[in-house]
Amino acid sequence: MSTIIKGIAASSGIAIAKSYRMQEPDLTVTKKSIADHDSEINRFTSAIATAKEELEKIKAKTNEELGEDKAAIFAAHLLVLSDPELINPVQDKIKSDSVNAEFALQEVANMFIQMFESMENEYMKERAADIRDVTKRVISHLLGVSIPDPSMITEEVIIVAEDLTPSDTAQLNRKYVKGFTTNIGGRTSHSAIMARSMEIPAIVGAKTVTTDIENGVIVIVDGLDGDVIVNPTDEQIAQYQQKKRDYDAQRAVWAKLVNEKTISSDDHHVELAANIGTPEDVEGVLKNGGEGVGLYRTEFLYMGRDQLPTEEEQYIAYKTVLEKMAGKPVVVRTLDIGGDKELPYLDLPKEMNPFLGFRAIRLCLEEQDIFRSQLRALLRASIYGNLKIMFPMIATLDEFRQAKAILFEEKDKLVSEGQSVSDQIEIGIMVEIPSTAVLADQFAKEVDFFSIGTNDLIQYTMAADRMNETVAYLYQPYHPAILRLVSMVIEAAHKEGKWAGMCGEMAGDPIAIPLLLGLGLDEFSMSATSILPARSQIKKLSKSKTESYKDKILSMSTTEEVVALVKENF
Asked: Is 364 annotated as catalytic?
């Protein structure tokens, strides 16, 4: 019998495939007495051989699809599995203590992990993580349970998980992963944002998918209405196949706008740009008619690896994006790590309120080696296209001035080294902290542009964690308080002859678009898949009509009033 699980439609489209549960198995090890030492050692040796075989396949696949640097971590794991310093003590323990292989391995591995973690040397600390991962893999074989590995999927599936980290999502193979659904998350969680950039349907915040969906059953993900259908009937499958065809037909109509500019019915032009996470995402931007990149989230260069990217690696990534965009504007956000985006190798302090803590520009101004390396890579790449640099999480003018001074120091050094650097780079900030929005008139005198990051601006203004489902009702993009802040930023920019964009998810929201057009937003940056529907919508809107409602909207007191006005008039 089929069941329907309700969730949040996070990425549009319809997917029908087998479920693939990405749940950590129970790897609890219990101590057992063993009489036959030789057969227990053979069992251990066999588990090591299977783990090696698996890792060789993963390493080859990762090398082919993601490059040598990403595959290096699996080469390190293979070295651990061949290290007599680890293997011999386990075999000795099996013999001397007459214990089962998994218990002996866990005891020996824990000793090494504690030893490495207590060392000051960063490289040695990283070896602890390698040992932990390898041990988990071998123990899973000894216990006879499988560890999910999305990079090794070879058939069409829908991922079912508690949540997906940005690095999990980045490793999903679009050829086989047709969609995903998670227990937790919202439209602005990183898994949702990545799903939209990958152009795969996704439903998040579905609460019970990991308990209600078994591995390998047929699942439908309806990313249009937020429904997950488990074990659908033949009739339901036919119904959703038709719904998918209808949606694809609608997309074909939108596709006719791909080479057109974004112009309202009364001839007002705005720029529709895309948010990206990797150089590979540029293909989706161009395919969907993006007029630029309004947000390049550079932190994905730093994720899913065991050490910082080199200046050269970053330079190549930025150069690639600029060249592919062929003169169209590319707004690159400097490193925004912290909050819900952790880098294990940076060993940042655990914080009570990470979203309000040591993150983004705060981290970069403190860890200047990391920051300067990124700025040098950006400056070197600047000659290959239309680069704009923006700093995230700016709360004070002093932070902006410090960041800009460091950027100019690195520019002067490069020029003195004989490197070519563009003189046309605009330098702006993300407006995501209310203090910055309130002081936008002062910031506008010093920045070249603003990009409003509504995902954080809303949660900070409403004091509501956007990852917390119990306060999700307070995540209100159309709340008059948010609209007033947005209006203040746009007006401040225009008064100084600067432009204002928006790179939060609100920019591609059909309810928000008429509001933002009326407030005078210059650039709307969104998931690539939202560009053509947004262009189609804007072409039907009159800028002067949306503008005529501005004062009325800003004087309203509730979200409901604003939504009612939009639905009634646009």
From this structure: no
